[in-house]
Amino acid sequence: MSSLIQAIPPQILYPLSFIAGLVLFLGPISTWYRNKKVTELTALNDLADLGKPRIEGKRIDGTAVVAGGSVAGLLTARVCSAHFSRVLIVEPEGWTATAEGLSDEARLSKAENGKKPNIRTRVQQYTSLHSYQPFTYLALKEMFPDFETEARKIDPAAIAPCDFQVHLGGRHLRPPLGFYKGTLPKFLTVSRPAYETLLRKLVKNNCDNVEFVTGTVTGINIDVDGPSQGLEGAGTGDRIQSVVIRSKEGVETAEPALLLADCTGPSLAALKWVSTPAKPLKVPKDVYDPKMYYTTCEYNIEPAKFEKVHFPGGFANASVIYNFLPDSRMERRVLLVFKRENNTLQFVCGGWDLAARPKSIADVRSFMSQIKGVDPVPDYMFQIADALEASNADATASYTDVKLPPCHFVKYHQVLDKIPTNLIAVGDAVLRVNPIRGQGCTKAAIGAATLSGVLQYCNPVFHSNSSREVLPDQFGKMFFERQNSRIQPVWDQTKAEDYGWDTTTPVEGESLTDGAWVRWYTWNLIAVALNSDSVGAAVYNSAMFIAPGTDVTTPGIALQVAWAGIKESLGLTKYGV
User: Which of 233, 237, 235, 215 minimizes the C-alpha distance to 224?
Assistant: First the structure.
């Protein structure tokens, strides 16, 4: 080896030595940087402690009040059950706390002519199509030891390898089977009603200190005796002493609370709690309207009628059939097709400022035929429409229209010195994005995991003026700042994509040109990912919330993206092809 090195001319040896030394130097720095981003931008490092007893073993003596008993509320209550002696879920819809709320059969039994109603009257998208990225599966597996068993009671195929059959602008972005050696990460495949029912059942089965109360949290009582001992200077020191709960009959009672979690979704209840006539507070809130309309078309199917559908891998083995997400430069329609429990097939047909939507299988066929992409909608989708018509699926079909309310981002992290130190907000109560990308339920799981991570290493402190233990004055600050670093990228990315359609109404003070760089990078990133297994794996992992978004902006990937953009600008490619 030494003789070989001596044979290399110095003018070549010295640069090679420099490059080798640089690689050895940058390798550990690159690893350190990525680990840092995993901690900051994801909740992956919080998974191990989810659902686990507190490190000190003893729960905090007091009540955590969770306002809202839907997905975010149930996940938050599960986390709190490991840390507080008592957890109270306050939910306006009383039936959810009864036996009826523990089985989706109650909804199915109310079906007329096979059409299933929305019995969750306060949740607009309850019967709409939902998806859950692998992070949600990982979180549920840690939270509930019986999760997989209970999920498979709903549907033996309730947990499956995660292939979302993504077609971006018509181009099939295949999952990274090579990266995962043939076995993709798992995900949950059931419908939203089944998922919420499952969560409620799991909480009741596993959390003996969680109580369900029918009512609404209408206000808060503030303890203004000053900061906790030893933590002066951490904001105002104001904390919630108790919450006001109004029953269905209109009776109001005060419930002592060590923690109050706003999980009321788009009601944004905490905005009302923290601002009073005596002490008004305007919390910054960004709002924009993508003018998104969609219809969830749900069909009861006979599996035998679909045996001749030429779906890759077999229709019977599939969980997701097709996901068309448009390139805003050529299309505004979106088409999503999922198989669900009880031999149900769900289509989502919609788009940006697209008011005319399907009301029959014939309409769905017409909708699919109008979609513009680099590659057309595959033939098997029209074969599925044929099979639906052959089995007269329209007779029991449901068509649920949704006009998406404006997206919002409540920036509690910017007013931490003005809000109570033991108030948090999770899920849509802090950030609601365009649901067409199916991120809402996973966003709630990220919030719950973040709360777990803060609580696990947060010890109560003695409050000298009231002679009781409370959460530290920096608790709310820690939670909101940590959660914000993990969900802000979701807001930034989806907003930038929505700004690609000229019908979107932007955030006040912004224009639709904002985010143009993000759109350009995303388009060219996909073009690279279509032809690179390693880049495709980075895109998949970050989209599934099992890797930080910075994985798709590394120098090596950024150079490939830049080259793809240059080729398109020179006319050598179009739409990355």
Answer: 237
Scanning 357-438, the segments in alpha helix (DSSP H) are 361-370, 379-390
Residue 564 CB contacts under 8 Å (≥ 6 apart), including other chains: 524, 525, 527, 528, 573, 576
d(CA 505, CA 501): 9
Same-domain pairing of 495 and 523 = no
**315 versus 463: which is more confidently predicted?**
315
Q: How many Cβ atoms from other residues are within 10 Å of residue 405's Cβ? A: 12
Beta carbons within 8 Å of 6's beta carbon, 6+ residues apart: none
- CA pair distance 401, 493, nearest whole angstrom: 26
- Whether residue 430 sits in one domain with residue 394: no
- In a domain? residue 171: no
Beta strand spans in 190-231 (E): 210-214, 216-223
Close Cβ partners of 91 (under 8 Å, ≥ 6 residues apart): 68, 69, 70, 73, 97, 212, 213, 214, 215
> 48-87 burial string, b = 16+ CB within 10 Å, else e?
ebbbeebeeeebbebbbbbbbbbbbbbbbbbbbbbbbebb
Sheet holding 252-256: strands in order across? 216-223, 239-246, 252-256
- Using left for φ > 0, alpha for ψ between -120 and 50, and beta otherwise, residue 558 falls in alpha
Six-digit token string for 50: 């989810």
pLDDT one-digit tens code per residue, 339-387: 999 999 999 999 999 988 899 999 999 999 999 999 999 999 999 999 9
Q: In a 10 Å sphere around its CB, with 0-12 CB exposed, 13-18 middle and 19+ buried, how is residue 278 labelled?
A: exposed
Q: Show the tokens assigned to 338.
A: 């999922």
Q: Residue 275 carries which DSSP code?
A: -
Which of 348, 369, 403 is a domain's end point?
Answer: 403
What residue numbers bound the domain in which 540 lies? 515-577
